[in-house]
Amino acid sequence: MNYYQRHFMQHLRSGNWVKVSALPDSPSTKVKVVKFGWAERKGRGPEACYRITESGLEALRAPIPRKSKSSLDSDHFALIGLGDLLDCSAR
Fold first, then answer.
1. What percent of the chain shows pLDDT beyond 90?
2. Contacts by 47-54 with C-beta closer than 8 Å and gap 24+?
3. What is the dihedral of CA 65, 70, 75, 78, to 10 degrees?
4. Residues in contact with 91: Cβ distance below 8 Å, sequence separation at least 6, in sequence order
5. Which domain range does residue 44 map to?
6. CA distances from 64 to 50, 55, 58, 61 (A)
């Protein structure tokens, strides 16, 4: 579950039907959470409502994956010393 999906699902956490107008405006996220079975939808257009499913509650309870330390230490990140940031006139 990514950040946008988690944010959307937090609005459904009560278990009640929630009108689409009260939810974040993210069409692709709405489609995905229904496709994954985390939420169900009834109605169409501005009358649509969403409700969290049991598997959606389980997905929200799951721990948020963290990046491993090794991925943070990779060559993709350049380390700059504080002195380099403060001393711009030396260049």
1. 60
2. 47/19, 47/20, 48/19, 48/20, 49/17, 49/18, 49/19, 49/20, 50/12, 50/17, 50/18, 50/20, 50/23, 51/12, 51/15, 51/16, 51/17, 51/18, 52/9, 52/12, 52/13, 52/15
3. 80
4. none
5. 3-64
6. 23, 16, 12, 9
* CA 28 vs CA 31, 39, 45: distances in Å: 5, 13, 15
With bands split at pLDDT 50, 70 and 90, how would you rate the model's confidence at 84? Answer: very low
Residue 25 is assigned to a structural domain of this protein: yes
In a domain, 37, yes or no: yes
